[in-house]
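(Protein data)
===
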Amino acid sequence: MRIPGFDYRRVPVAGDVALNVAVAGSGSPVVLLHGFPQTHLMWRHVAADLATAHTVICPDLRGYGASDKPAETGPDTYSKRTMAADVVALARALGHERFALAGHDRGALVAFRAGLDHPAAVTHLACLDVLPTLDMWEVMRGADAAVGFHLYLMAQPPGLPETMIAASADAFFGHFLDLWTGDAEAIPPGVRAAYLDACRAAVPSIVADYRASAGVDAEHDRADRAAGRRLAMPVTVLQQDWGAALGYDAAALWRAWAGDLDHRTVTSGHFMAEESPAEVAKALRDLLTR
C-alpha cells in the first residue's frame, strides 16, 4: 500500500542499506518516522495534511516495511544511533541539511537519538507515546511491567525470541494492533493486513531493533545523561497517560532532557496519528512555529 499523492523511491543511506521513502509537498522539510508494528503508512493522514505546506518525508525505518533489513552483526546494526544516522543521511540525500523530525513509538526513539546526536540538523522534534529508552527501563517495575512483556522477550539473545515470534507472527503483531488501538476503525482491514505482512517478513530485524534498546541504546542514553546532554531544539511530546497507570511523572522525565518542552496528554489510543490525525497535525504545526 502507498500514501496517495506521494512519490516513492529507494534512497541509499549507509553502506548496503537503502530506505523506502514516500515524499510529497513543498516548503520546509518534515520527516515522519513510524512505530511498531507499523510502517510509514501510519502517517498517511497526517502526512497528507502537512504536505499542503511542507515537504513531507516518510521513510520505512531500516529493518521495517520495504526498507533494507541487514543482518544483525552486532549491537550497532540496529542501535538508535545508527538508525538516526540513516535519517540524517536520507534527508541530506533529498537535499535537506536541516529538517523537523517527528517519530512515533520506535520511530520516536530514533528521533530522540537524532536530536541528541545531530542537533545542527534537527530544527524541531516531536516524540509520540514513548519515554526515552533509559527512562522506560527505569519505570518498568513489578507486575505493572507485564504490559511491556514484548520488551523483555525481544531483549533476549538471538535465537529464541525470533523463533517464538516467527511461529505465530500474525497473532503476536496483531495482539498489539488490537490491544493498543482506542478506535478499531482507525486501522482498516487493508492497512492492518499491510502491517502484518510487513512484520511477518521482518521478524529478525524487528527483534534486533528491540534488542538494541535493552543494551546499546540504554548505554548511549546513560552516557548522555551523565554528560548533561539535552535536546537543544523545541520539543513536543504527545502521550497517553501511562504515568498515571505506572506511577511516574512523564512530563518531569521529559523535562530532564528538553528545556523547551510542550508536553501534552492525549485521550486517543497508542496509534494516535491514525486515531486523531487532526490533533497530531495541529500539534506538529504548533511545534513548527516555535
In short: The mean pLDDT is 97. The chain has 14 helices and eight strands. The two ends are 34 Å apart (CA to CA).
